[in-house]
Amino acid sequence: MEQLLKIGVSACLLGQEVRFNGGHCNHRFLTHSFSKYAVFEPVCPEVAIGMGIPRKSVRLERDDADSNMVRMIEPKSGHDYTDDMVAYSAEKAAELNDLDGFVFKKNSPSCGVFRVKIYQNDQPSERRGIGLFAQAVMERYPELPVEEEGRLSDPFLRENFVERVFAYRRVKDLFDRKWSRRDVIEFQAREKLLLMAHAPHKAKLLGQLVGRIKQSQRDDFATAYIQAYMDCMNTNPSKGRHTNAMMHMAGYLKNKLSQSGRAELASVISDYRNGYVPMTVPMALMQHMIRRLEEGYLVNQTYLAPHPRDLALRNHV
Hints:
By secondary structure, the protein is α/β, with parallel strands linked by helices. 47% of the residues lie in helices and 12% in strands. Helix 6 crosses helix 9 (239-253) and helix 7 (200-211) packs antiparallel against helix 8 (218-233). The longest helix is centred in the middle third of the chain and has 22 residues, at 155-176.
């Protein structure tokens, strides 16, 4: 990767004092660890539409006249910010056409992605909403990796998000230059085991798409491939699928390893599957064996290092 990633971020997560109470929610992983590999595009939709700092809190309310319509309301005054927020969100989303990922502020009526509270009349709130700005971004860029900062505290979700961000950048870089059929085939070969760890069935369909590349127009194929690739990558991997991918790798080594070497590798993979060791343990042994045995196909697998090692994202998954 020749350039830094470009990541959209709710501005308060970068330490900007734009919260409704005039504070911020600086996220240390973003500002201290991930910042070495990314430039950030800060966005605060509420400030952008003129709501001020500090400001009265707003919330999402279901429209009584149209149950499918959710509005952004300031409950104390009844002021409706929906039209302003929807118009801004559409305009701003259109500008963010070169992002590699987005981290949103959880629970926010503008930026929340998962389980944002929706109110209706005097009924208890329902955690089934999406912030109006986040929804506009996600609808315009369905392949874009997105996450909430609260969920980044989960080591599994953090590793998965960063993995998807780097994957999105790689596949875009592939088609942003003058590419050939051979380039795509080689890219698909390098990504095979990573895709298998996310969604084996979708990975197989992606391989079939590559097999039909000669029958497609270039632009149509690029669009279809990026969509299918990210559909696969945006499917969360599991310990079982990771184990399956590792066993697949071990299959390439079995004829080059001694009986004791095969047993050692199988034992470490089993320990990972059973939760006794983190993912770094079988992967480190696998990398050592691949280098020692000079297994060319596996050396180039993205799955071995889908993100920078110093982020230590696989130490706790």
